[in-house]
Amino acid sequence: MATPRPAAPVSRGWGSGGLTGAAAALRRRYPTVDDLERAARRRAPRFAGDFVGNGLGDDVCLRRNRAALDACRITPRYGVDVRRVDPGVTLFGRRYAMPLGVAPMGLAGLLRSGADESLAAAAQAANVPYVYSSVGNSTIERIGKMAPDVFWYQLYGVPAQEHRVSLDLIRRAAEAGAQVLVVTLDVPVRAKRSGDVRNGLVVPFKPRLRTLLDVLGAPRWALDLLRHGQPRFGNFEPYLGSRPSTQALATYVYQQMAGPMTWEALARLRQAWPRAMVVKGVLHADDAERAVRLGMDGVLVSNHGGRQFDAAPATLEALPQIVARVGRQATVLVDGGLRHGVDVLRALHRGAHAALAGRAFLWGHGAAGAAGARHVAALFEEEFRLALAQSGAVDVHQAARGGADPG
Ligand SMILES: Cc1cc2nc3c(=O)[nH]c(=O)nc-3n(C[C@H](O)[C@H](O)[C@H](O)COP(=O)(O)O)c2cc1C
């Protein structure tokens, strides 16, 4: 069992305020993900902060995810020696530091440049899974180098020519060392996100009066854009000739990466992918069962962070039925609204083997760059250890059983 690591080397006096070092300073400035979100939103124009933070429709599903987590109670068990807790977990044959990874996020560089690299490096350092998006702003090859031990790849299908490009993307991901392929099922149509429509969001960013005023209020973001350029959909460069423009890449993604991922296409991808494979965006137990029958190693219970279908259930509500149906044959993961270490415990308590968080990590990068992303991993790890111990569990197996064994 691992020994608990202190958050920072020395404490002068009573209280965590006495801790020293750069990590401790971040911890004081941003003790929670909410603090990071506020800072990240202040730094970025409204259209960028809203793109990350919003759901769709009336944000009902977005709020439902959070409300279900808040409503999840765990009765603690005391009297257990919890001085040594082990937050580690084994997923698809590999040991990770805790049962929480980074969810895939496309166009993450809109909030602050370098997001994908920053999150990948933070995940590698923290030894947690990092799921790199098909519509990320780096490249598959670069992420493979930055996160060699924790790289998972997320695929959105490109249906044209019998998925020629989809198959090539996963070939490249396998070559770059991705250990797990995550295929997203829950985007049969492009979502209408009225907040983005209202904010005039378009990539590449076009200066219109509304967006210009928005950017004028975010000078650090604007400087960053001037220095690093607009976010590019770098994974698609090989399919558009030599050094395609940012505009050409964005148009390609908008036009080609559209249409449903079908069970038939999934079966073909299963044949082509040599390692573990997970279907993302499952909310119905019948769909979970079908995915497992197709040979999937895992299902990710997700409603896309409330960004696709406002009537969808909270993921924590959908989770127990899916665990009951496929939890013995497959790894069940969940995401949606996680912002605290105790949320990871809640996910395990409802039967998940592990969870992912998206926005939480991106707010960290948005507020404080690479150090901010690392800080979020540290926050989750510290809080998850505390939550485990407080509940009376010393490892993830006991956490799933709801604290210490009786007797
Ligand atoms: C800005 C943003 C971009 C996203 N892009 C993708 C994506 O490219 N592929 C995907 O499967 N899911 C995508 N998602 C959904 C996340 O993977 C994940 O399901 C969701 O964000 C989890 O909820 P949380 O952000 O509240 O933790 C995106 C989410 C956000 C916030």
UniProtKB/TrEMBL annotation:
Limits of the FMN hydroxy acid dehydrogenase domain: 25-407
Residue sites binding glyoxylate per the record: 156, 193, 304, 307
Cofactor(s) listed: FMN
Gene Ontology terms, MF aspect: FMN binding; oxidoreductase activity
Superkingdom of this protein's organism: Bacteria
Chain sites annotated for binding FMN: 104-106, 133, 154, 184, 280, 302, 335-339, 358-359
Coiled-coil features, chain-numbered ranges: none
Catalytic site positions: 304
InterPro entries, A to Z: Aldolase_TIM, Alpha-hydoxy_acid_DH_FMN, FMN-dep_DH, FMN_HAD, FMN_hydac_DH_AS
Keywords for this protein: Flavoprotein, FMN, Oxidoreductase
Family indicated by similarity: Belongs to the FMN-dependent alpha-hydroxy acid dehydrogenase family.
Protein name stated in the entry: Alpha-hydroxy-acid oxidizing protein
